[in-house]
Structures are given as structure tokens and as C-alpha cells.
Specification:
It is a single chain. The longest helix has 20 residues, at 133-152. The protein has one domain (3-163): P-loop containing nucleotide triphosphate hydrolases (Rossmann fold). The chain is globular. It contains 6 helices and 7 strands, in the order E-H-E-H-E-H-E-H-H-E-H-E-E. Helix 2 (40-53) links the parallel strand 2 (28-33) and strand 3. The model has no long low-confidence stretch (mean pLDDT 93). A 7-stranded mixed β-sheet has the order 3-2-4-5-1-6-7, sandwiched between helices. By secondary structure, it is of the alpha/beta class. The chain has helices at residues 14-23, 40-53, 66-73, 85-94, 99-111, 133-152; strands spanning 3-8, 28-33, 57-61, 78-83, 117-122, 155-160, 163-166.
């Protein structure tokens, strides 16, 4: 496994699965965090996740510039775990970045990564059609990003109820 995309709904077990897969590989472990601590609940969530990972992990906060970070950080002997692409998408939208260009750049960076990369993303397109334009734009952008990263990945796993289903 060189490039793995782990998809699933909220609380499906995707992050736990991705972390276990990363920890099963030899080498240094780098958690590439896209979350931003914008409120107290998110600060607590981030702190809990850091504590759960343990001392083998280092953390790199990359809320926006993933396409630049992946080629710099990915190398043999180092496993990158990017969690999560869905938050990254919302960060890009709030920063008014070009979503199509960022998606293309990240897919290229993942495809060219010099070491193992595991990426986590929510599958947000399984529910009802959102009732407002912003939510529909987000859903569509997340879906296009998931498709682009899945195409660049060697393996894609879908998690539901903590159970993986191999898609690719």
C-alpha cells in the first residue's frame, strides 16, 4: 500500500481504521491535521485525538496547503496520515480558494508521493440533497475531491459501522 483513501460517514470508524493501518507500517508516523481549533469543542476533540495517537506520532497542522505539504513530507520510511479531506474542503471554501485547482493539485501530489500516504474523508453524498446552495456546493466539492483522490489512490476502503469494505 502506497496510497490509501479511507471513506465513510461520521463516526463510521474511518479515522481509527486509518490510524491502525498507518501504525501497521514501519517508519515514522506523521499525522497531517486539517482541523482548526475554532471553538472549545474542537479544541477538546483535537487534544483527545493527539492523546490517542501516542508518542510514535508527530503532528503537522495543515489547514489549507495540503498540495504543498504532501510532496515535502512524503518519503520512504515515513507514513503520512491526512485527516481529514472533508474539513480541508470546508477550510478552502471559507478561504475562498479555487476548489477545482486545489483538488487537482492534491490529486497530483498524492499520485506522485514518494512514501505511503493515507487520507481520510467523509462520504457526504449519501443523504438527502441539501436545501441551500452553500451546502450543495460543499457536497459537490467533497464528492469531486473524493473521486479525484480515489483515482490517485492504490486502495480505497469504505467504512460503515466500523467495518471496512474494499472499493479499490
Amino acid at each position: 500500500m502506497t496510497r490509501l483513501l479511507v471513506l465513510g460517514g461520521a463516526r463510521s470508524g474511518k479515522s481509527r481504521y486509518a490510524q491502525a493501518r498507518a501504525e501497521s507500517l514501519p517508519g515514522d508516523l506523521v499525522y497531517v491535521a486539517t482541523a482548526q481549533p475554532l471553538d472549545a469543542e474542537m479544541e477538546d476533540r483535537i487534544a483527545r485525538h493527539r492523546a490517542d495517537r501516542g508518542p510514535r506520532w508527530s503532528t503537522l497542522d495543515v489547514p489549507l496547503d495540503l498540495p504543498a505539504a504532501v510532496p515535502i513530507q512524503a518519503r520512504p520510511g515515513r507514513v503520512l496520515l491526512v485527516d481529514c479531506l472533508t474539513l480541508w474542503t470546508s477550510n478552502l471554501m471559507f478561504a475562498e480558494r479555487d476548489l477545482d485547482a486545489e483538488t487537482e493539485a492534491l490529486a497530483h501530489a498524492v499520485a506522485q508521493a514518494a512514501g505511503p500516504v493515507i487520507l481520510v474523508a467523509n462520504e457526504v453524498g449519501l443523504g438527502i440533497v441539501p436545501d441551500n446552495a452553500l451546502a450543495r456546493r460543499f457536497r459537490d466539492a467533497a464528492g469531486r475531491l473524493n473521486q479525484a483522490i480515489a483515482a490517485a489512490a492504490d486502495e480505497v476502503q469504505f467504512l460503515a459501522a466500523g467495518l471496512p469494505l474494499r472499493l479499490k
